[in-house]
Amino acid sequence: MTQRRENVIIFPMPEEMQFTLGVETGRDGRERPALFFRTRTELWCVFSDPLGICFRKKLDVGREDHSADEMKRDHLGIYRILSKKWNELSAFLKKPPSAV
Question: Cα–Cα distance between 14 and 50 in angstroms, integer?
């Protein structure tokens, strides 16, 4: 169950997986709100820009951008985790204030 405290959204998850909200530079060069997913060994983020939904893997040097189709094909587990949380967050933010 998702909890909300002031302007912070807390997703209860196992210790080795953490979700945070932040800002990421989109493929168009503009800053976009993003959902970050961190494990012990990887950092992923998902955001929406004019080119569509982007899944980004942050590397020590650089980054890898993946479309939804690439994620389904090459990183299905990460895709399912990120898309589920992205959809939950989107639905949560679209609720009217009285329903929160």
Answer: 33
Spatial distance between the Cα atoms of 32 and 84, rounded to a whole number of angstroms = 19
Find out whether 36 and 44 touch, Cβ atoms under 8 Å.
Answer: yes
- What does the buried/exposed string (b/e) look like for 6-18 if buried means 16 or more CB atoms within 10 Å of the residue's CB? eeebebeeeeeee
Cβ-contact 68, 60 below 8 angstroms? no
pLDDT, tens digit, for every residue of 15-70?
678 899 999 999 999 999 999 999 888 999 999 999 999 999 998 888 999 999 99
Domain residues for the domain of 11 are: 3-93
How many structural domains compose the chain?
1
pTM of the model: 0.74
